[in-house]
Write the C-alpha cells for this entry.
Amino acid sequence: MIVRIMGEGQVKLADSHFTELNKLDDELLAEMERGDDEGFRRTLHALLDRVRELGEPLPDDALEPSELILPAPDATLEDVREMLSDDGLIPG
C-alpha cells in the first residue's frame, strides 16, 4: 500500500504492518476523544515514526496514487479530526 505523510512524501508499506499500526491508530482516536493533547501528540509521532521505519520511501519524483494519507507531524487535534473516518486514520 502507498501511504502519504502530508508534507513529507510517500512510502510503500506492506499490508502485514497494518495490525500494529491500527493499534496506534486506536490509541490516537481514544486520546482525541478524551481531548488528551499531550497523548495525542505522542501517539501521532509514534505512528508516523513507525510508518517511516516500516515503509520503503518512494522517490520524490514518483507519482503513485496514495491509498492512505496521514497527517503531518505538526497537525493539531482539529486537523486530524477532519481527516478521520469511522475507522480512524487507518482503515481496518
